[in-house]
Q: What sequence folds into this?
DNA sequence: CGTTTGCATGGCTGG
DNA sequence: CAGCCATGCAAACGT
């Protein structure tokens, strides 16, 4: 995929550079991640870091961790402010990832720059985290099953069985247009985030790794982060 | 004929 | 016992 290739070069972190320290063109030299690791709480895989969230009726179960917020995201509904009315027509290859190349803006006013910096430095409010399963990491699927409670609480409401396109930015500043939908199941719905194939390749998802979703404080935009399985920095290269 | 998409099933956990 | 979710699978597609 040309897109992926394009990324490969944008992301120097391939061979031996720590992904977390990679600075992409958009980063402006500022690491947007406050401290992902500290967010994990030290919840055991099976236990859940029960949150302190007041309004949120959340309680994770299984290998996922929901992070409660103190005041910024009391009500999960708050983040449902921006409604994407994409209609959901062409879902097929509509998934795309676009680099936010602000540096290309010929007429970037100082105001805009300030805004960009503001966003870059804005703190990320952890929403929830999920440990990847084999299915999630499977390239053929290119989709991530989202914990129901988290999906309903933090993702934009889905209009109809179709689902919605949602803009998500990764912690490197890349923008992704993902498709958020659900499958009707015998017992309710199963929420899924599709269109992740390229991101999966880029980050080299593996079962056991974890994905965290944040809400950027500045503009409320969804941001996704990725962490390799339990702090193992000496095993970052491709196996075979 | 290899993929992708959507769904149904079954294991498992919490209530 | 109810519901969640990981996974298997068949229909639908694309090459």
A:
């Amino acid at each position: 995929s040309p897109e992926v290739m394009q990324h490969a070069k944008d992301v120097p972190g391939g061979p031996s550079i720590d992904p977390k320290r990679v600075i992409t063109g958009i980063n402006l030299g500022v690491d947007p991640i406050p401290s992902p690791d500290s967010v994990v709480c030290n919840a055991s895989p099976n236990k859940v870091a029960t949150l302190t969230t007041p309004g949120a009726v959340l309680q994770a179960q299984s290998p996922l961790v929901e992070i409660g917020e103190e005041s910024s995201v009391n009500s999960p509904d708050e983040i449902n402010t921006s409604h994407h009315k994409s209609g959901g027509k062409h879902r097929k290859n509509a998934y795309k990832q676009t680099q936010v190349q602000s540096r290309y803006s010929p007429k970037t006013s100082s105001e805009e720059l300030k805004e960009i910096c503001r966003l870059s430095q804005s703190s990320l409010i952890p929403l929830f985290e999920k440990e990847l399963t084999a299915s999630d990491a499977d390239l053929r699927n290119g989709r991530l099953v989202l914990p129901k409670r988290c999906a309903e609480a933090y993702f934009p409401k889905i209009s109809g069985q179709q689902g919605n396109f949602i803009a998500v930015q990764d912690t490197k500043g890349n923008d992704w247009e993902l498709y958020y939908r659900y499958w009707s199941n015998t017992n309710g719905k199963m929420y899924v985030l599709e269109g992740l194939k390229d991101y999966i390749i880029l980050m080299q998802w593996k079962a056991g790794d974890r994905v965290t979703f944040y809400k950027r404080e500045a503009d409320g935009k969804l941001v996704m982060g990725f962490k390799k399985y339990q702090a193992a920095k000496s095993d970052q290269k491709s196996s075979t």
Observations:
- The longest helix of chain A spans residues 110-121.
- Confidence is low (pLDDT under 50) at residues 1-63, 69-90, 99-104 of chain A.
- Residues 46, 61-62, 92, 140-143, 183-186, 190, 192, 194 of chain A lie near DNA strand B (CB under 10 Å from a C1').
